[in-house]
Design a protein that fits this description.
Elements: E1 2-3, E2 11-13, E3 21-22, E4 28-37, E5 41-49, E6 53-60, E7 64-75, E8 79-82, E9 85-89, E10 93-99, E11 103-109, E12 120-123, E13 131-133, E14 136-144, E15 147-154, E16 159-164, E17 168-179, E18 182-185, E19 189-192, E20 196-213, H1 216-223
Amino acid sequence: MFIHADFSKPVIIKPEDYHWVKSLGGEVDRMMLDRIGDEKARATSLVKYAPESAFPEHQHPLGEEVLILSGIFTENAEDDYPAGWYLRNPHHSTHQVSSKAGCLIFVKLMQMTEHEREPTRINTNDPANWKLTEHRMICPLFQSEHEQTYLEKLKPDQIFVEKSEQGIELFIIKGQLFCGTEIYPAGSWVRLPLNSAAKFQAGPSGATLYVKTGHLQHAIDVWVK
C-alpha cells in the first residue's frame, strides 16, 4: 500500500479530507496520512480508539511516535497518558495498548533508526517543558542527526516560518493557520518536500503546532527504491 509515498511532492490534508478505515483486527479506526506498506508499514496516521478498546501486545521495529490529542491512552494496562503527552517507543520495543474512555492519537510508525534505544515521555501540558527561544514558544520533543521535532505555540496573528533542506511536516493541534486566502483548521496535516520553506500566519485565537524537520532525506534513503 502506498499513500502519499512520493516525498518529492507537497501534501496537505484537512479534516474535510479524512477517510477513516478500520484496522485489520477492527480494534481502531485509522486516517492514513502517508504510508508505505500494508499492516507493517512506515506510516503517519491519526488513530481513534473507541471506549473500552484494546490492541494486543505487539512489537515496533523502527519504533513508534505518539502524540495524544484527546482522551486517555493506556500502555500495559497501567500507564495512563492523557491528551498532551508525547511518547517515543524505540526500535523493537513491545507494549500492549488500550483506552478505557477512548482517545485520538497522532502516530508515526517505523520512522526511527535502529540506534534509538531509549523511550521518551514528555508531558507537553507542563509549562516547565516549554522554552522561549528567539521570540518563539517551543516545547522540544526530540533531536538527532535525522530529525528535529517540537511543538510551537503561536500568538494570535503570529507568523510561523520554518526552512529545511530535508523536509518539513506540520500538524495543527489547536487553532488555525492562514496562507494567503487558504485556511488550515485544527487537524490539518502538511508535509513539504526537501529544500522547502513554510510560512503561515496564526488565526485570531493563535495556534499550537506539531513540527518535524530534517527527516525526509532519511525516509527517502531508507524507503524509496
